[in-house]
Amino acid sequence: MDFIENIEWSVLMTNAGIIILKLLGIIIAFLIVKAIGNKVIRKMFNRLQERENISNGRALTLHSLTLNIFSYVLIFIFIVMIFQVFNYNVSALIAGAGVVGLAIGFGAQGLVSDVVTGFFLLLEKQIDVEDYVTVAGFDGIVEQVGLRTTQIRGFDGTLHYVPNREITNVSNHSRGNMRALVDIGISYDDDIDKAISVLQDVCDKLSTEDENIVEGPNVLGVQALGSSDVVIRVLAKTKNMEQWAVERNLRKAIKEAFDANEIEIPYPHQVNVEKK
Amino acid sequence: MDFIENIEWSVLMTNAGIIILKLLGIIIAFLIVKAIGNKVIRKMFNRLQERENISNGRALTLHSLTLNIFSYVLIFIFIVMIFQVFNYNVSALIAGAGVVGLAIGFGAQGLVSDVVTGFFLLLEKQIDVEDYVTVAGFDGIVEQVGLRTTQIRGFDGTLHYVPNREITNVSNHSRGNMRALVDIGISYDDDIDKAISVLQDVCDKLSTEDENIVEGPNVLGVQALGSSDVVIRVLAKTKNMEQWAVERNLRKAIKEAFDANEIEIPYPHQVNVEKK
Amino acid sequence: MDFIENIEWSVLMTNAGIIILKLLGIIIAFLIVKAIGNKVIRKMFNRLQERENISNGRALTLHSLTLNIFSYVLIFIFIVMIFQVFNYNVSALIAGAGVVGLAIGFGAQGLVSDVVTGFFLLLEKQIDVEDYVTVAGFDGIVEQVGLRTTQIRGFDGTLHYVPNREITNVSNHSRGNMRALVDIGISYDDDIDKAISVLQDVCDKLSTEDENIVEGPNVLGVQALGSSDVVIRVLAKTKNMEQWAVERNLRKAIKEAFDANEIEIPYPHQVNVEKK
Amino acid sequence: MDFIENIEWSVLMTNAGIIILKLLGIIIAFLIVKAIGNKVIRKMFNRLQERENISNGRALTLHSLTLNIFSYVLIFIFIVMIFQVFNYNVSALIAGAGVVGLAIGFGAQGLVSDVVTGFFLLLEKQIDVEDYVTVAGFDGIVEQVGLRTTQIRGFDGTLHYVPNREITNVSNHSRGNMRALVDIGISYDDDIDKAISVLQDVCDKLSTEDENIVEGPNVLGVQALGSSDVVIRVLAKTKNMEQWAVERNLRKAIKEAFDANEIEIPYPHQVNVEKK
Amino acid sequence: MDFIENIEWSVLMTNAGIIILKLLGIIIAFLIVKAIGNKVIRKMFNRLQERENISNGRALTLHSLTLNIFSYVLIFIFIVMIFQVFNYNVSALIAGAGVVGLAIGFGAQGLVSDVVTGFFLLLEKQIDVEDYVTVAGFDGIVEQVGLRTTQIRGFDGTLHYVPNREITNVSNHSRGNMRALVDIGISYDDDIDKAISVLQDVCDKLSTEDENIVEGPNVLGVQALGSSDVVIRVLAKTKNMEQWAVERNLRKAIKEAFDANEIEIPYPHQVNVEKK
Amino acid sequence: MDFIENIEWSVLMTNAGIIILKLLGIIIAFLIVKAIGNKVIRKMFNRLQERENISNGRALTLHSLTLNIFSYVLIFIFIVMIFQVFNYNVSALIAGAGVVGLAIGFGAQGLVSDVVTGFFLLLEKQIDVEDYVTVAGFDGIVEQVGLRTTQIRGFDGTLHYVPNREITNVSNHSRGNMRALVDIGISYDDDIDKAISVLQDVCDKLSTEDENIVEGPNVLGVQALGSSDVVIRVLAKTKNMEQWAVERNLRKAIKEAFDANEIEIPYPHQVNVEKK
Amino acid sequence: MDFIENIEWSVLMTNAGIIILKLLGIIIAFLIVKAIGNKVIRKMFNRLQERENISNGRALTLHSLTLNIFSYVLIFIFIVMIFQVFNYNVSALIAGAGVVGLAIGFGAQGLVSDVVTGFFLLLEKQIDVEDYVTVAGFDGIVEQVGLRTTQIRGFDGTLHYVPNREITNVSNHSRGNMRALVDIGISYDDDIDKAISVLQDVCDKLSTEDENIVEGPNVLGVQALGSSDVVIRVLAKTKNMEQWAVERNLRKAIKEAFDANEIEIPYPHQVNVEKK
């Protein structure tokens, strides 16, 4: 066993001592950083909850998510450091594994994108369950805001699963009063002033009857001189999600008032010229 | 053979000893990590199955897939480590082979993208065989959800093979009740109230007769003042996939009720003015 | 010749010995890996052929392709390793040649993309020669599925060369029965029930006469209340590629039955109002 | 305890001395750079505020934002330097963690993009709260300009959350006078000169009555020879946001003036040729 | 000259010897690789020419192109190796010159893309001079297939220069027989069977007269029930580029046969309802 | 204080000497390069101003911008070099900070893109304040050309802020004479030659009266045989920005000349066939 | 001054000697490479000019451009090499300055792209001043082909500045004869043979009269059976840029010939069915 004697045991020993010291240092640093990090995150969320007026459930979701991500990152760094102590260059191992790494990196990127967007959707309260929104080309009621996907129930009953990374611009239709708008055409032969006064009467009556109307309705004036009719615009502000009902009521009331006052809603017109 | 004597055998020996020790360490680490990893994955899937209410078959598919991926990654790392012990920098070899690596990386990236998306499609139950879905612009019944491709049978009989990476937004039409919507135009000369009451009678009768109707149908009111007709909207909620049959029944019943009550569904109108 | 004596021959000798040993090791490793790889690939394809029911010709094509790729990769690695033994960092050479490498890499990437997609097209049997498919916006009969390009013969006689990488979603119209669908408009004055019973008679007769019809045809009901006609939908399932002939027969039979029963297929209608 | 004696304590000591000196140097440098940086930023903003005429609130927001970013970057560099002193290559650690780093990098990139764009939106005063703007395809009144998102209230009541990075071109409709434009068609049988003089009379009257009109309105001339009418264009410059009201008033006045002067706004014409 | 004596001449000498040996090795390797490579390329093209039936001119073009590329790559590697011998890290020099290199790399990438695509266009015979093709949105006759650009003469006389990299899908209209298709509408009052028999007579006559017709023409049946006409489809297969002439002849013959048999090609119909 | 004695003071001293020498060298090089660079830039701009005929203000803007960029780059390099002397690898620090660097890099890239494009917009005089241009889909008068954004005032009063990087193609409508084009339809029953001679008379008269017309107007001939009219085209060249006024005058003059000569501008025609 | 004595002067001296030798070598290599390069470029352009028939001015432009680029690249390499001799890793400095480098790299990339495309536009003569071309969506006459931008004068007088990198496909309308095409509709009641013979007479007459016609015009036959007319196509080949004048003459001559021969160019037809 000449070979074993050749090994320089003393060097090995010294190295082993250094390694053990390093390991101890890393573990202690790890524990300290984790404790401090957790405390910082807890305080941050307490302050955030007070300041931004976030509901308890939402704050808890965000808090536990942040803690999870923090501990995963810490464990990852911890493992890499330990490997480096043993002189296995793990990060090079992963980075160097170009083929696999690149592919996985892109995959993971999608996930991270989803989670980051989901985080801000929750934090900035852009979207809430039960909201009527338009995101990524889909229109409907939000059923669930997850970290990876948001579920939107279309008005025809379809359930749309939208990955959060697809959500850039959010159009939220449940943030305040909505507008009810009716464009109504009258004949070129009718008197505009008379039509407007009839319309305003209808508006005033509806305004007192319908409690869903917040403001108006009011007659704005001549919106267009169409090919067969003079278009007059009526505008109102309604409670949220009541805009369609108000518009339907407005249309019915206007039609009936026009019938009573003999104002015509004209069909398309055409002048026929006989060829000489 | 002076040359062989020149070789420093003792250094070689020491190196060999270190290499053997390293190899042993790697193999042991490999076995331990594999055992622990398998256990962790098994437990994770057990908990997941309980919590998320996943069917047994689906859970098994996901479990074996996860185990496969885990062991492939482990073997890859194992091989690279062993090469590194012999001082062949394999990862540099692969990464450095820029031309080939880049090309293969992009190819493999597509595969990984497919598998990752497929994994989440299965895990989050966004898509099930027999579902009627719209994904990547294709409309149809899901025939198979694979890890690389999803097969969708279009209503015209075409079989669409969609790589999973092409599936971002999923519109699933088989997740709950659907809407039946019929817009019906009446003449400007007809009485709106009478038309609405006739329509509501039709709706009430159908509602009791047709067990596919879950809610309604109800008359919403005047949806639009068209160029030749007053459009009234009727809405119902039906059992899944029965929306078209309900709509067809509604249309037939409305047409017959209007004929009986002499309410006109008007043709397009045009006012002819004779040129003076 | 003082200079030659200055060279440290002993160091050179030792190095030469190590190099020769390394070369031998690489060659042996190369031979072993190649033999094992070939065996593994052969077994894999045997099992694949049994399980997936792939035709012999197709299996041979895929087998030889896989063997080729495997041996090219092996030879590439082999050459790089030998160069490294002589301390020429070949991979750095290639990777470092950034300008040329980047350009070629992108070029080669396209080729690899083509081959990878071609491989899966063949393996997953998404496309077969003689199939009627829609890929990359082209419609037609597949003439050839190559590793780089797929040739599709359009119905107007044009031959489309589609690089495989352009093929993502595959719509294969030759995978099972197809649908024949005829929408037919009847007059608002006609009786819907009578029209439906006439249509169903036509369908039943055709169903017994035409052996290309697999299921139906059946009358679904009132599909729409059009501006001038009540649209009724008829649906059938036919043998593959016979859907157009069945639709043509259906249309002719319906037209003749309607003529016989005096049911009108209406022209567009317009109500003319005289200007008072 | 032979092993502890083997450790070369003197080398360790020397290293420790160097490390302590380096740490001191870094901390001092850190403090100096921070103090200088803060001073420079303060002066820069003072000068900027004077020169660019920025409101106090806006300047404070930008100032504190710049200070925050500066101190984060400094702390980041500080930490990395300290780690390097202890020979842990932190930057390599982060960079090498290719998979995670790449993914997070892309996520963070989005955030940075948002903040950078937000910074310039505020600095260059392209957007102000209460402005009527068109950005990223959304039309409406700006409700809030944040560092990450801008909130725009659409005219129909919808609240659009637009991430700042989506804002490239900004169309601000609240920067000066707006244009009111009315195109009016007269009959081919009417005299153009007479129509223009009637129109100009209307314009002149309105110009004196309506204080929202800044310039004009003026009759430009024959804008087009349409299929049934000669189109004449009227143009005015109005106070901001009053363009629609002015256009409505113009249309009503023109219609009434034409009625009074018997100038016809023609319906679409068609020449009917009887088939011989 | 104390300084010159200080230089370790012996070390310099040894290095010089090693460098000269290395240079010799590189030059010899270069010559061998070049000779072998040329031979391999020549053989490859001989075999390719036999197997793929490529014309002599085309084979020569491809051969000399391949030889050129091969020798450029070899010379590039040769130069880099020689620089490395003198310890100037040329590849790092080029790669490190990030700014310039990146920019040039992208430029060169376009060129390489052009050449690679051009190579395959020539090799796979997707395009030939005088072919009628559709590539990159341009329609016309190929005038020249170069390595960088392809020239296509549009039917209106325009000469389109298309960089080869823009050519992905190639639609070649000069690869076999083409289809002539005529859709003809008959009146709803005409007898379908009679019309079809008249059409088939026309087709049979033309089929014997016109030698450009390869197959058919045949009457397929009722293609559609239009709003004013019953559409019948006629199909033929013609010699390449003769499809338009055949279609023109078909249309003229059908029109004349219909006139002779009093079958109407109907104008658009409209039912006029008088307002009660 | 055994520890301090252990430090190898002599080595430290030597290093310190080298460092000081290096620092001196760097500072001297810095000063020389700066002086030379400034001189070169000044001369370059002097020559440029003479040759390209650039206005003084514009030249000053470009000059000071170039000097600023040059000195920033120099200072950056200077700092990095000094850090390298102290063995802190600053560039690695920045580059290695992959996450932050990548994100900032992309942000800064946008700024640089803006500035580079702005530089060329100014230098090549593609855009001037007061020009009427179409860039990035926006139409209007240029109000300001900045280094980061260009401000364009739309004709409706909107102010568009366009980041320079969005400006690729510039369509400048203020670079020379413009075209006035009027297409006029006459009846199929009118004599083409008579109509053309009447039109040419109108053109000749206008040409002498209107000093905004540079060339023409001339009658080109029969531009199209429309469905109801024979379209004749009239073309003129006008002073810049006067094209619309000239077109309006042309239309009015033509209409009046046609009325005087009894040439009809026809309404859409339709042949009515009575159903037998 | 113990410290100065500690410096190992002899090592410094040796290094200085090596550095001076290296510098000399680099300078000599630089001069040789430059001389050879210039000669090679000159010869290349001489040969190119002879072979490709390039005008003198164009050849000079390309020649001086190539010389400039070559000398810039050489100077860049020269500077980097000299810095490397002094052990300042300049390339790392530039490359490492990731933030700035990346940003500038992208900016410079655009410039290089412009210049490369401009180079090939000039060399391959795809575009010439005075040509009528369609590039990057712009239609017009080329006014200037620069290395960075191409100026195109639109037919409406607008001057389009197109960066060369935006120019991929070039459609040059000034490369040979153009096509004149007139589609003319005759009545369904007219005799096709008579119409064709009248048309051919017109064509033959025009062909002898108009020297701008190179080939034809010829009557091709029945191009379509329209809804109200039988469309007949006439085709001619004309001198470049004369196609529009020829088409106008053709239309006028055909209209007059049809009037003389009482062949009708029909208005749109409609069959009116009276509602029973």
For the record, the CATH architecture of the largest domain in chain A stands as Orthogonal Bundle
Kindly report the greatest chain-chain contact and the residue count on each side: A-B, 60 and 63 residues
How many domain modules of chain A?
A: 3
How is the main sheet of chain A built?
5 strands, antiparallel
CATH topology-level name of the largest domain in chain A: Helix Hairpins
CATH class of the largest domain in chain A: Mainly Alpha
Q: How many helical stretches of chain A?
A: 7
Q: Which stretches of chain A are poorly predicted, pLDDT < 50 over at least 5 residues?
A: 94-99
Strand content of chain A: 15-25%
Count of distinct strands of chain A: 9
Gyration radius of chain A, in Å:
34 Å
Structural class computed from helices and strand pairing of chain A? alpha+beta
